[in-house]
Amino acid sequence: MKKQSVKESEAIAKATVALIHMPGAPNFLVDGMISLLYELQAATGAKLWNGEAKECWNVETLARVVEHYQTMHLMLERKKDLAELISAVLNHPELPVQLYNELFKGVMYYYDELTAEERRLVDNSPERIRLILKAEECA
After folding, report:
1. What are the residues facing 57 on neighbouring strands?
2. C-alpha 87: how far from its chain's center?
3. CA distances (Å), 72 to each of 31, 40, 42, 120, in order?
4. Confidence check: pLDDT of 101 > 90
5. pTM listed for this prediction
6. Which of 71, 17, 65 is CA-nearest to residue 44?
7. Cα dihedral sign for 125, 26, 38, 36?
């Protein structure tokens, strides 16, 4: 990849900020761009956000970041919720049996506290049915 010129870097920075402020731009795209800029700011130490200024995104600084860090890769991962984290621990191959048993017992404690209607909702949830169908395909 060839290095961008200062002019190209400025054009990329301006287009990025313009996209964020573009009327009608989908929220998922704007939110993604903003999240990426915050990650970029944290990774580089460059002050890209200036909430005090009329134009909150510092286009000049963003242009310098584009110019100097163009080959940088940011690892953006969706944050897992508590259920996914607990599931990951329960399914981890190195989890000792005793820890598995205790954690599973804790999860089941909450399940046992559910009313019959709440259990029906859990048992018939799309997530559970997907897992059952997936397990059946593998069998």
Report:
1. 49
2. 18
3. 20, 9, 13, 48
4. yes
5. 0.49
6. 65
7. positive
Torsion of CA 86, 91, 95, 101, to 10 degrees: 70
Q: What is the distance of C-alpha 18 from the center of its chain?
A: 23
Q: Nearest 5 degrees, angle CA 89-CA 94-CA 96?
A: 85
Q: Flag whether pLDDT at 36 surpasses 80.
A: yes
- Tokens representing residue 19 in the block: 């996209």
Per-residue pLDDT band for 126 (boundaries 50, 70, 90) equals confident
By three-state DSSP, how is residue 66 classified? helix
pLDDT at 59 over 80: yes
* pLDDT over threshold 80, residue 42: yes
Strand partners, 49: 57
CA distance 3 to 69: 10
